Amino acid sequence: MYLRHQTRPVRVGDITIGGSDRVFIQSMTTTKTADVRATLEEIHRLEEAGCELIRVTVNSNEAADAIREIKKEMHVPLVADIHFDYRLALKAIENGIDKVRINPGNIGKRDRVEAVVKACKERGIPIRIGVNAGSLERHILEKYGYPTAEGMLESALHHIRILEDLDFHDIIVSMKASDVPLAIEAYRLAAEAFDYPLHLGITESGTLFSGTIKSSAGLGTLLSMGIGNTIRVSLSADPVEEVKVARELLKTFHVISNAVTLVSCPTCGRIDIDLISVANEIEDYVQNIKAPIKVSVLGCAVNGPGEAREADIGIAGGRGEGLLFRKGKVVRKVPEQDLVAELKKEIDILAKRFEET
Ligand code: SF4
């Protein structure tokens, strides 16, 4: 377990971001928020995949109005993404939003900022300041010449100061960049400079393939440094894929405890079964199981049980039949055609046992 940098706890709906070693997974819907049915359909798929916080864009009065209906049928906190229009923030707050993403320095006159902060205070709603290397304030860009980590920190501190001056401290900050080393450095500076929880993200990271690699490199580095309290993987893909990648990343760093870990071998000339299909099928099967089970899928029994000693349950393929083993010990032989079904049954038993404890 990589311990987190200590941050202040910030309440968002019924969860607390920061102040502990938990890292919450979040994503953002791709639908028009005003289309309540389509948005809820996507929200429910995200919840099912393990998303713990969901953001919607609030770019119109209709979108802000839809929040009330959306909130009635969802189960995780809802975040409103607002860029400049403070009136949309006020409307979203009135309609029951759990968190607002808005940069106070972009709202305009002080009375507008005060109105948003007052409404957030009254309802216990936090504000996320979203610093983005691509949209730094002009004076900062002029000072540094191009987006730098120092410039991003300066921008974050500028927005933080506006809120602190109004005695508002329920703040979460993101320091996003699509350039991975820049984002890592910006988050590192932020973690040193203040103790507000950090929302991790590599922005515009790309497609499912390249975005997964970029996000894993950047966010993985930060997680290994103990930085980050909530995570969003941004992909040009179905947002459910973002949640899957985020969960896998958190598992990799032992930051998440209620997920299945799959170990599978790379295959080689010794193999007699279609292991790649089996591994993919099992990976799909365990995706939504919320239990800390380690499953091993190996191509052959030569090193199988030994290699999977740490696995709670596993299979090793063979010619016409395979082995089922627990903690590296063979339990029984299983005909090849029943291997996957037997493994699924055993996983279900372990998951049920976990649920009951
Ligand atoms: Fe090859 Fe067997 Fe090792 Fe898989 S488990 S890589 S099939 S030796």
UniProtKB/TrEMBL annotation:
Cofactor(s) for this UniProt protein: [4Fe-4S] cluster
Domain of life: Bacteria
Protein's pathway: Isoprenoid biosynthesis; isopentenyl diphosphate biosynthesis via DXP pathway; isopentenyl diphosphate from 1-deoxy-D-xylulose 5-phosphate: step 5/6
Amino acids binding [4Fe-4S] cluster: C265, C268, C300, E307
UniProt keyword annotations, A-Z: 4Fe-4S, Iron, Iron-sulfur, Isoprene biosynthesis, Metal-binding, Oxidoreductase
Keyword Glycoprotein assigned: no
GO molecular function: 4-hydroxy-3-methylbut-2-en-1-yl diphosphate synthase activity (ferredoxin); 4-hydroxy-3-methylbut-2-enyl-diphosphate synthase activity (flavodoxin)
Keyword Oxidoreductase: yes
Span of domain IspG TIM-barrel: 7-246
Cofactor note: Binds 1 [4Fe-4S] cluster.
Pfam families named among the record's database cross-references: GcpE, GcpE_C
EC code: 1.17.7.3
Gene3D superfamilies according to UniProt: Dihydropteroate synthase-like, Sulfite Reductase Hemoprotein, domain 1
Catalysis performed (reactions): (2E)-4-hydroxy-3-methylbut-2-enyl diphosphate + oxidized [flavodoxin] + H2O + 2 H(+) = 2-C-methyl-D-erythritol 2,4-cyclic diphosphate + reduced [flavodoxin]
Domain (IspG C-terminal): residue spans on this chain: 262-348
General function of this protein: Converts 2C-methyl-D-erythritol 2,4-cyclodiphosphate (ME-2,4cPP) into 1-hydroxy-2-methyl-2-(E)-butenyl 4-diphosphate.
Family statement drawn from the similarity comment of this UniProt entry: Belongs to the IspG family.
Protein name: 4-hydroxy-3-methylbut-2-en-1-yl diphosphate synthase (flavodoxin)
